[in-house]
Amino acid sequence: MPFSMNTIKRFFQITLIIILNSYVNGQNSAGRVPDYPVPYVLPSVESIMEKIDKIVSYYENSSTQQILNRETGAVIRDFTQPNKYAVVSEGLSSEWTYTHGVVLSAFDYISELTGDDSYFSHNIKFYDFVRKHLPYFRRNNEEYGRSACGWRRIMYMDALDHCGSIGAALVRTFKKHNNPEYRELIDIVDKHVSNIQFRLDDGTLARERPQPVSVWADDMYMSVPFLSQMGDLTKDEKYWNDAVNQVLQMSKRLFIGGKDLFDHGWNENSADYDPRFYWGRANGWTVMAMADLLTVLPHDFQGRDEILHIYKSLIRSVTELQDGTGFWHNMLDKSDTYLETSCTAMFTYGIAKGINEGWISHVYGPVAQTGWNAVATRILENGAVDGTCEATTFAHDNVYYFNRGKSYDATHGYGPVLFAAAEMIRLLNNTHIRIDKAKPNSINSTYHYKYE
Q: 198-451 is classed in which CATH architecture?
Protein backbone atom coordinates (compact mmCIF):
# COMPACT_ATOMS: atom_id res chain seq x y z
CA MET A 1 0.00 0.00 0.00
CA PRO A 2 1.63 3.28 -1.01
CA PHE A 3 2.29 5.90 1.70
CA SER A 4 0.85 9.37 1.34
CA MET A 5 3.16 12.34 0.97
CA ASN A 6 2.12 13.57 4.45
CA THR A 7 3.04 10.22 6.00
CA ILE A 8 6.47 10.31 4.37
CA LYS A 9 7.07 13.88 5.53
CA ARG A 10 6.01 12.94 9.05
CA PHE A 11 8.37 9.97 9.04
CA PHE A 12 11.33 12.14 8.08
CA GLN A 13 10.42 14.75 10.69
CA ILE A 14 10.33 12.14 13.45
CA THR A 15 13.62 10.63 12.25
CA LEU A 16 15.29 14.04 12.24
CA ILE A 17 14.02 14.79 15.74
CA ILE A 18 15.40 11.47 17.00
CA ILE A 19 18.79 12.15 15.39
CA LEU A 20 18.98 15.67 16.78
CA ASN A 21 17.95 14.54 20.24
CA SER A 22 20.57 11.80 20.19
CA TYR A 23 23.22 14.31 19.16
CA VAL A 24 22.24 16.85 21.81
CA ASN A 25 21.99 14.21 24.53
CA GLY A 26 25.34 12.82 23.49
CA GLN A 27 26.88 16.24 23.67
CA ASN A 28 25.34 16.86 27.08
CA SER A 29 26.55 13.51 28.43
CA ALA A 30 30.10 14.15 27.27
CA GLY A 31 30.14 17.65 28.76
CA ARG A 32 28.76 16.50 32.09
CA VAL A 33 31.92 14.59 33.00
CA PRO A 34 34.57 17.11 34.07
CA ASP A 35 37.57 17.45 31.77
CA TYR A 36 40.28 18.23 34.32
CA PRO A 37 43.29 20.08 32.83
CA VAL A 38 45.57 18.29 35.34
CA PRO A 39 44.71 14.68 36.28
CA TYR A 40 42.30 14.65 39.22
CA VAL A 41 43.78 11.56 40.83
CA LEU A 42 45.21 10.36 44.11
CA PRO A 43 48.98 10.08 43.66
CA SER A 44 50.80 7.04 44.99
CA VAL A 45 53.83 7.07 47.25
CA GLU A 46 55.70 5.19 44.54
CA SER A 47 54.93 7.81 41.88
CA ILE A 48 56.09 10.61 44.19
CA MET A 49 59.32 8.78 45.05
CA GLU A 50 59.95 8.39 41.34
CA LYS A 51 59.70 12.17 40.94
CA ILE A 52 62.02 12.74 43.90
CA ASP A 53 64.67 10.44 42.47
CA LYS A 54 64.50 12.18 39.09
CA ILE A 55 65.17 15.51 40.74
CA VAL A 56 68.02 14.01 42.77
CA SER A 57 69.58 12.69 39.56
CA TYR A 58 69.33 16.14 37.98
CA TYR A 59 70.90 17.65 41.10
CA GLU A 60 73.78 15.16 41.07
CA ASN A 61 74.54 16.01 37.45
CA SER A 62 74.28 19.78 37.97
CA SER A 63 77.95 20.21 38.87
CA THR A 64 81.20 18.27 39.01
CA GLN A 65 82.00 19.72 42.46
CA GLN A 66 85.55 20.58 41.48
CA ILE A 67 87.91 23.54 41.64
CA LEU A 68 88.74 24.81 38.16
CA ASN A 69 91.10 27.26 36.48
CA ARG A 70 88.67 29.72 34.93
CA GLU A 71 91.21 30.67 32.26
CA THR A 72 91.95 27.16 31.01
CA GLY A 73 89.03 25.11 32.36
CA ALA A 74 91.50 22.62 33.82
CA VAL A 75 90.85 20.93 37.15
CA ILE A 76 93.10 22.31 39.91
CA ARG A 77 94.59 19.60 42.07
CA ASP A 78 97.52 21.39 43.69
CA PHE A 79 96.22 23.54 46.53
CA THR A 80 99.60 24.42 48.05
CA GLN A 81 100.00 27.60 45.96
CA PRO A 82 97.49 30.44 45.48
CA ASN A 83 95.90 30.75 42.05
CA LYS A 84 93.97 33.89 41.19
CA TYR A 85 92.06 32.05 38.47
CA ALA A 86 90.67 29.36 40.78
CA VAL A 87 86.88 29.06 40.81
CA VAL A 88 84.27 26.59 41.99
CA SER A 89 82.66 24.56 39.20
CA GLU A 90 79.30 25.98 38.20
CA GLY A 91 76.03 24.26 39.04
CA LEU A 92 73.51 23.96 41.86
CA SER A 93 75.30 21.22 43.82
CA SER A 94 78.44 23.39 44.16
CA GLU A 95 76.77 26.66 45.18
CA TRP A 96 76.76 28.40 48.54
CA THR A 97 73.29 29.86 47.87
CA TYR A 98 69.92 30.03 49.54
CA THR A 99 68.29 27.92 46.83
CA HIS A 100 70.83 25.17 47.43
CA GLY A 101 70.12 25.47 51.14
CA VAL A 102 66.46 24.63 50.58
CA VAL A 103 67.45 21.56 48.57
CA LEU A 104 69.84 20.35 51.28
CA SER A 105 67.22 20.88 54.00
CA ALA A 106 64.80 18.86 51.88
CA PHE A 107 67.34 16.05 51.49
CA ASP A 108 67.66 15.93 55.27
CA TYR A 109 63.88 15.74 55.62
CA ILE A 110 63.45 13.06 52.97
CA SER A 111 66.08 10.90 54.68
CA GLU A 112 64.21 11.30 57.97
CA LEU A 113 60.91 10.21 56.41
CA THR A 114 62.24 7.35 54.31
CA GLY A 115 65.12 6.10 56.45
CA ASP A 116 67.30 6.27 53.33
CA ASP A 117 70.54 8.09 54.14
CA SER A 118 71.54 8.39 50.49
CA TYR A 119 69.65 11.68 50.29
CA PHE A 120 71.35 13.09 53.38
CA SER A 121 74.75 12.00 52.03
CA HIS A 122 74.55 14.91 49.58
CA ASN A 123 74.63 17.30 52.54
CA ILE A 124 77.82 15.79 53.93
CA LYS A 125 79.40 15.71 50.49
CA PHE A 126 78.72 19.40 49.86
CA TYR A 127 79.70 20.76 53.26
CA ASP A 128 82.86 18.63 53.26
CA PHE A 129 83.63 20.05 49.81
CA VAL A 130 83.32 23.56 51.24
CA ARG A 131 85.25 22.75 54.39
CA LYS A 132 88.11 21.20 52.41
CA HIS A 133 88.60 24.03 49.93
CA LEU A 134 87.57 27.14 51.86
CA PRO A 135 91.06 27.60 53.39
CA TYR A 136 92.51 27.58 49.86
CA PHE A 137 90.15 30.31 48.72
CA ARG A 138 90.92 32.30 51.85
CA ARG A 139 94.60 32.27 50.90
CA ASN A 140 93.72 33.29 47.35
CA ASN A 141 91.64 36.11 48.74
CA GLU A 142 94.52 37.34 50.91
CA GLU A 143 96.88 37.20 47.94
CA TYR A 144 94.74 38.58 45.14
CA GLY A 145 91.68 40.21 46.72
CA ARG A 146 87.96 39.72 46.40
CA SER A 147 87.99 38.98 42.67
CA ALA A 148 89.90 35.76 43.33
CA CYS A 149 87.53 34.50 45.99
CA GLY A 150 85.51 31.32 45.58
CA TRP A 151 82.37 31.12 47.73
CA ARG A 152 82.70 34.85 48.30
CA ARG A 153 79.30 34.83 50.00
CA ILE A 154 80.99 33.12 52.96
CA MET A 155 83.83 35.62 53.28
CA TYR A 156 81.84 38.66 52.23
CA MET A 157 78.43 38.08 53.80
CA ASP A 158 76.36 41.20 53.37
CA ALA A 159 72.83 39.81 53.05
CA LEU A 160 70.59 37.18 54.58
CA ASP A 161 70.45 35.57 51.13
CA HIS A 162 74.11 34.69 51.60
CA CYS A 163 73.74 32.69 54.76
CA GLY A 164 70.32 32.06 56.32
CA SER A 165 68.94 29.21 54.22
CA ILE A 166 72.26 27.48 53.52
CA GLY A 167 73.10 27.98 57.21
CA ALA A 168 69.85 26.35 58.33
CA ALA A 169 70.66 23.30 56.22
CA LEU A 170 74.16 23.26 57.72
CA VAL A 171 72.75 23.20 61.27
CA ARG A 172 70.44 20.36 60.30
CA THR A 173 73.43 18.50 58.88
CA PHE A 174 75.58 19.21 61.93
CA LYS A 175 72.95 17.79 64.28
CA LYS A 176 73.32 14.41 62.55
CA HIS A 177 76.95 14.63 61.44
CA ASN A 178 78.83 16.28 64.30
CA ASN A 179 81.90 17.58 62.47
CA PRO A 180 83.56 20.32 64.58
CA GLU A 181 84.67 22.13 61.42
CA TYR A 182 81.01 22.60 60.48
CA ARG A 183 80.55 24.54 63.70
CA GLU A 184 83.01 27.19 62.51
CA LEU A 185 80.80 27.86 59.49
CA ILE A 186 77.67 27.85 61.66
CA ASP A 187 79.21 30.48 63.92
CA ILE A 188 80.04 32.67 60.91
CA VAL A 189 76.42 32.55 59.81
CA ASP A 190 75.18 33.14 63.35
CA LYS A 191 77.40 36.20 63.71
CA HIS A 192 75.95 37.75 60.58
CA VAL A 193 72.29 36.96 61.24
CA SER A 194 72.37 37.82 64.95
CA ASN A 195 74.83 40.72 65.07
CA ILE A 196 75.67 42.20 61.67
CA GLN A 197 72.64 42.17 59.37
CA PHE A 198 70.87 45.53 59.19
CA ARG A 199 67.81 45.75 61.45
CA LEU A 200 65.09 48.25 62.26
CA ASP A 201 65.00 49.86 65.71
CA ASP A 202 62.62 47.16 66.94
CA GLY A 203 65.00 44.40 65.81
CA THR A 204 63.24 43.46 62.58
CA LEU A 205 65.72 42.15 60.02
CA ALA A 206 65.72 44.50 57.05
CA ARG A 207 67.59 45.58 53.94
CA GLU A 208 68.98 48.85 52.72
CA ARG A 209 67.69 48.18 49.24
CA PRO A 210 65.87 48.96 47.04
CA GLN A 211 64.95 51.84 49.38
CA PRO A 212 67.19 52.75 52.34
CA VAL A 213 64.95 50.98 54.89
CA SER A 214 63.06 48.00 53.42
CA VAL A 215 61.48 44.83 54.81
CA TRP A 216 61.09 41.87 52.47
CA ALA A 217 58.72 38.94 53.00
CA ASP A 218 61.42 36.70 51.51
CA ASP A 219 63.62 37.41 54.52
CA MET A 220 61.29 35.53 56.81
CA TYR A 221 62.68 32.38 55.19
CA MET A 222 66.20 33.78 54.89
CA SER A 223 66.36 34.12 58.68
CA VAL A 224 63.71 32.24 60.63
CA PRO A 225 64.66 28.64 59.70
CA PHE A 226 68.27 29.33 60.74
CA LEU A 227 67.16 30.87 64.03
CA SER A 228 64.72 27.99 64.55
CA GLN A 229 67.42 25.40 64.02
CA MET A 230 69.90 27.27 66.23
CA GLY A 231 67.36 27.27 69.03
CA ASP A 232 66.88 23.54 68.57
CA LEU A 233 70.64 22.94 68.43
CA THR A 234 71.72 25.07 71.38
CA LYS A 235 68.49 25.13 73.47
CA ASP A 236 69.21 28.82 73.92
CA GLU A 237 65.80 30.53 73.78
CA LYS A 238 67.28 33.78 72.47
CA TYR A 239 67.19 32.25 68.98
CA TRP A 240 63.54 31.23 69.25
CA ASN A 241 62.65 34.64 70.70
CA ASP A 242 64.33 36.30 67.74
CA ALA A 243 62.59 33.97 65.28
CA VAL A 244 59.18 34.64 66.83
CA ASN A 245 59.80 38.38 66.78
CA GLN A 246 60.83 38.27 63.12
CA VAL A 247 57.58 36.55 62.10
CA LEU A 248 55.38 38.85 64.17
CA GLN A 249 57.17 42.10 63.32
CA MET A 250 57.46 41.34 59.61
CA SER A 251 53.79 40.36 59.62
CA LYS A 252 52.88 43.64 61.29
CA ARG A 253 54.22 45.47 58.24
CA LEU A 254 53.48 42.95 55.49
CA PHE A 255 50.48 40.77 56.37
CA ILE A 256 47.49 42.62 54.99
CA GLY A 257 44.22 42.24 56.84
CA GLY A 258 41.22 41.49 54.68
CA LYS A 259 43.46 39.96 52.03
CA ASP A 260 45.27 37.72 54.55
CA LEU A 261 48.24 37.71 52.19
CA PHE A 262 51.79 39.01 52.49
CA ASP A 263 52.78 42.08 50.55
CA HIS A 264 56.15 41.42 48.93
CA GLY A 265 57.84 44.30 50.71
CA TRP A 266 57.56 47.45 52.78
CA ASN A 267 59.54 50.69 52.70
CA GLU A 268 59.84 53.08 55.59
CA ASN A 269 59.63 56.12 53.33
CA SER A 270 56.16 55.15 52.05
CA ALA A 271 55.07 53.36 55.23
CA ASP A 272 51.29 52.79 55.43
CA TYR A 273 50.83 53.91 51.84
CA ASP A 274 53.40 51.59 50.30
CA PRO A 275 51.86 49.93 47.19
CA ARG A 276 51.08 46.25 47.69
CA PHE A 277 52.03 43.36 45.44
CA TYR A 278 51.12 39.82 46.42
CA TRP A 279 53.89 37.86 44.75
CA GLY A 280 53.44 34.09 44.98
CA ARG A 281 56.90 33.00 46.03
CA ALA A 282 57.20 35.69 48.71
CA ASN A 283 54.06 34.27 50.32
CA GLY A 284 55.46 30.79 49.84
CA TRP A 285 58.64 31.71 51.71
CA THR A 286 56.56 32.86 54.69
CA VAL A 287 54.57 29.60 54.72
CA MET A 288 57.75 27.55 54.78
CA ALA A 289 59.39 29.75 57.41
CA MET A 290 56.43 29.58 59.77
CA ALA A 291 56.13 25.81 59.27
CA ASP A 292 59.82 25.41 60.13
CA LEU A 293 59.46 27.46 63.31
CA LEU A 294 56.19 25.85 64.45
CA THR A 295 57.81 22.41 64.08
CA VAL A 296 60.51 23.07 66.70
CA LEU A 297 58.90 25.73 68.90
CA PRO A 298 57.56 24.45 72.25
CA HIS A 299 53.76 24.52 72.34
CA ASP A 300 53.66 26.94 75.27
CA PHE A 301 56.24 29.34 73.82
CA GLN A 302 55.15 32.98 73.90
CA GLY A 303 53.98 34.16 70.48
CA ARG A 304 53.39 30.68 69.05
CA ASP A 305 49.61 31.04 68.99
CA GLU A 306 49.87 34.36 67.14
CA ILE A 307 52.10 32.79 64.52
CA LEU A 308 49.74 29.86 64.16
CA HIS A 309 46.86 32.28 63.58
CA ILE A 310 48.79 34.06 60.82
CA TYR A 311 49.73 30.73 59.28
CA LYS A 312 46.15 29.42 59.30
CA SER A 313 44.76 32.67 57.93
CA LEU A 314 47.28 32.66 55.09
CA ILE A 315 46.54 29.02 54.27
CA ARG A 316 42.82 29.75 54.06
CA SER A 317 43.41 32.75 51.82
CA VAL A 318 45.73 31.01 49.36
CA THR A 319 43.40 28.01 49.23
CA GLU A 320 40.65 30.29 47.98
CA LEU A 321 43.02 31.60 45.28
CA GLN A 322 44.14 28.22 43.92
CA ASP A 323 43.61 27.99 40.16
CA GLY A 324 41.40 25.30 38.61
CA THR A 325 44.53 23.54 37.42
CA GLY A 326 45.85 23.08 40.96
CA PHE A 327 48.55 25.71 40.43
CA TRP A 328 48.77 29.17 41.93
CA HIS A 329 49.42 32.30 39.89
CA ASN A 330 52.70 34.19 40.03
CA MET A 331 50.77 37.16 41.40
CA LEU A 332 48.32 35.43 43.69
CA ASP A 333 45.40 37.78 43.21
CA LYS A 334 45.85 38.29 39.47
CA SER A 335 44.59 35.38 37.38
CA ASP A 336 46.10 36.86 34.22
CA THR A 337 49.62 36.15 35.49
CA TYR A 338 51.13 32.76 34.70
CA LEU A 339 50.83 29.58 36.74
CA GLU A 340 54.02 29.29 38.75
CA THR A 341 55.80 26.21 40.06
CA SER A 342 57.77 27.27 43.16
CA CYS A 343 54.90 28.94 45.02
CA THR A 344 52.60 26.04 44.12
CA ALA A 345 55.11 23.63 45.67
CA MET A 346 55.48 25.85 48.74
CA PHE A 347 51.75 26.03 49.38
CA THR A 348 51.38 22.30 48.72
CA TYR A 349 54.06 21.63 51.31
CA GLY A 350 52.64 24.11 53.81
CA ILE A 351 49.11 22.71 53.58
CA ALA A 352 50.15 19.06 53.74
CA LYS A 353 52.51 19.87 56.62
CA GLY A 354 49.75 21.67 58.48
CA ILE A 355 47.43 18.68 58.19
CA ASN A 356 50.11 16.23 59.27
CA GLU A 357 51.05 18.34 62.29
CA GLY A 358 47.43 19.05 63.24
CA TRP A 359 47.77 22.81 62.72
CA ILE A 360 44.94 22.97 60.18
CA SER A 361 41.92 20.81 59.40
CA HIS A 362 42.21 17.66 57.34
CA VAL A 363 39.55 19.08 55.00
CA TYR A 364 42.38 20.93 53.24
CA GLY A 365 43.72 17.58 51.96
CA PRO A 366 42.40 17.90 48.38
CA VAL A 367 44.09 21.31 48.06
CA ALA A 368 47.50 19.79 48.77
CA GLN A 369 46.72 16.79 46.57
CA THR A 370 45.75 18.86 43.56
CA GLY A 371 48.70 21.18 44.19
CA TRP A 372 51.05 18.21 44.05
CA ASN A 373 49.41 16.84 40.90
CA ALA A 374 50.03 20.22 39.26
CA VAL A 375 53.65 20.40 40.40
CA ALA A 376 54.29 16.85 39.17
CA THR A 377 53.49 17.95 35.60
CA ARG A 378 56.42 20.39 35.75
CA ILE A 379 59.04 17.77 36.61
CA LEU A 380 60.70 16.94 33.31
CA GLU A 381 61.91 13.49 32.34
CA ASN A 382 65.52 14.41 33.20
CA GLY A 383 64.48 15.68 36.64
CA ALA A 384 64.57 19.40 35.87
CA VAL A 385 61.81 21.45 37.50
CA ASP A 386 60.25 23.77 34.94
CA GLY A 387 58.02 26.83 35.22
CA THR A 388 59.75 28.54 38.15
CA CYS A 389 59.80 32.32 38.32
CA GLU A 390 63.28 33.81 37.98
CA ALA A 391 64.96 35.68 40.85
CA THR A 392 62.78 38.68 41.65
CA THR A 393 63.60 41.87 43.48
CA PHE A 394 61.15 43.86 45.62
CA ALA A 395 59.53 46.12 43.00
CA HIS A 396 56.85 48.79 42.84
CA ASP A 397 55.04 48.21 39.55
CA ASN A 398 52.84 45.49 38.13
CA VAL A 399 54.60 45.57 34.75
CA TYR A 400 57.77 44.23 36.36
CA TYR A 401 56.00 41.45 38.25
CA PHE A 402 53.77 40.47 35.33
CA ASN A 403 56.76 39.96 33.03
CA ARG A 404 59.08 37.94 35.22
CA GLY A 405 60.68 35.10 33.29
CA LYS A 406 60.24 31.45 34.19
CA SER A 407 62.59 28.55 33.56
CA TYR A 408 63.99 25.25 34.82
CA ASP A 409 67.26 27.17 35.28
CA ALA A 410 65.63 29.13 38.12
CA THR A 411 66.74 26.93 41.01
CA HIS A 412 64.22 28.37 43.47
CA GLY A 413 61.78 25.56 42.64
CA TYR A 414 63.89 22.49 43.34
CA GLY A 415 63.93 22.54 47.14
CA PRO A 416 60.25 23.44 47.54
CA VAL A 417 59.21 20.66 45.13
CA LEU A 418 61.26 18.15 47.13
CA PHE A 419 59.64 19.37 50.36
CA ALA A 420 56.19 19.14 48.81
CA ALA A 421 56.89 15.61 47.63
CA ALA A 422 58.11 14.52 51.05
CA GLU A 423 55.14 16.01 52.87
CA MET A 424 52.67 14.47 50.42
CA ILE A 425 54.22 11.06 51.09
CA ARG A 426 53.76 11.72 54.78
CA LEU A 427 50.14 12.74 54.20
CA LEU A 428 49.38 9.63 52.15
CA ASN A 429 50.91 7.52 54.92
CA ASN A 430 49.12 9.39 57.71
CA THR A 431 47.29 6.69 59.66
CA HIS A 432 44.91 9.25 61.18
CA ILE A 433 43.55 10.25 57.78
CA ARG A 434 41.12 8.28 55.63
CA ILE A 435 40.81 9.39 52.02
CA ASP A 436 37.50 8.81 50.27
CA LYS A 437 38.42 8.72 46.60
CA ALA A 438 36.65 10.35 43.70
CA LYS A 439 35.10 7.93 41.21
CA PRO A 440 36.77 8.01 37.78
CA ASN A 441 34.67 9.48 34.95
CA SER A 442 31.96 10.45 37.39
CA ILE A 443 29.68 13.41 36.80
CA ASN A 444 29.86 14.46 40.46
CA SER A 445 32.52 12.93 42.68
CA THR A 446 35.34 14.42 44.69
CA TYR A 447 37.98 13.59 47.31
CA HIS A 448 37.28 13.83 51.02
CA TYR A 449 39.99 13.63 53.67
CA LYS A 450 38.49 12.44 56.95
CA TYR A 451 40.04 12.16 60.38
CA GLU A 452 39.97 8.78 62.08
A: Alpha/alpha barrel (1.50)
